[in-house]
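Inverse folding, one chain.
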């Protein structure tokens, strides 16, 4: 957890070019999203409760083009049908438009999420919220920042005083019972619960103390890779629903300031709170 302002020159030599390029491309894509926001965009249905816009495709193409040119030997895993990962030490994990439904309906809660994974471990996380002009960056073992300033999680210690975030997955039909029970339990036990429809922003909200905790089922790696590292580097805790190690391919996300993590896990462990025979949407490759 850093106490100093972000400085690219302070990072390890191998990470400097990745962080520099990742930040620049996140800013560029953010400008694209802001420019196209609340304009007429084509929307296509991908599946039940899931859509894609032409801006998703355009934004992803921009990121992939930049990263391929700068890092031709790196793998890329992205939401809109791109998986080029075989035999690469470094892999970029992308969601250039997290919060597609919000974007398509004119709701100002969406972001760019970019992470870099080395040998299966996320080393760099970048989330750009263009509407609120906030750029979150985390580098493993070096800290987390918003607009260059260090961030840290909240100090709330009781679940009853905690403000929580969550989300509803695309495959809601498979888990509606467990999700409904868990949401009700947290709504009763906490200060309040919000679903803002962009998991990467919610994780950054935990990292900077706006949320005290967050949980969600059935997320894909591109939803949580960047935000999860930002939480950890801001002094927070990440785990699965049972308190085990956080895995961006595991589909279970619990994030907190650390102090209320056990209380969140106890609510999730109540009968019917964890979906039976759960399989995550994306397997580790």
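Residues assigned per position:
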């Amino acid at each position: 957890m850093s106490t100093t302002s972000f400085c690219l020159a302070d990072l390890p030599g191998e990470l400097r070019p990745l962080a520099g390029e990742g930040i620049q491309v996140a800013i560029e894509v953010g400008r694209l999203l802001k420019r196209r926001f609340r304009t007429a965009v084509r929307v296509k249905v991908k599946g039940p409760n899931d859509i894609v816009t032409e801006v998703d495709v355009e934004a992803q193409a921009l990121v992939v083009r930049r990263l391929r040119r700068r890092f031709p030997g790196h793998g890329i895993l992205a939401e809109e049908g791109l998986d080029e990962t075989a035999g690469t030490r470094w892999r970029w994990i992308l969601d250039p438009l997290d919060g597609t439904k919000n974007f398509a309906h004119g709701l100002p809660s969406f972001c760019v999420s970019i992470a870099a994974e080395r040998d299966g471990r996320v080393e760099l996380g970048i989330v750009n919220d263009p509407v609120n002009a906030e750029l979150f960056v985390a580098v493993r073992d070096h800290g987390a920042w918003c607009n260059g300033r260090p961030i840290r999680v909240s100090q709330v210690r009781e679940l009853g005083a905690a403000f929580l975030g969550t989300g509803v997955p695309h495959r809601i039909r498979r888990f509606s019972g467990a999700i409904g029970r868990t949401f009700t339990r947290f709504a009763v036990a906490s200060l309040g619960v919000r679903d803002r429809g962009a998991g990467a922003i919610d994780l950054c909200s935990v990292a900077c103390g706006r949320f005290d905790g967050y949980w969600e089922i059935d997320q894909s790696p591109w939803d949580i890779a960047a935000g999860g590292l930002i939480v950890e580097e801001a002094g927070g805790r990440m785990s699965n629903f049972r308190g085990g190690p956080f895995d961006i391919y595991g589909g279970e996300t619990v994030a907190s300031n650390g102090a209320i993590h056990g209380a969140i896990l106890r609510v999730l462990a109540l009968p019917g709170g964890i979906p039976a025979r759960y399989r995550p949407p994306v397997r580790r490759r």
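The mean pLDDT is 94. The longest strand covers residues 90-98.
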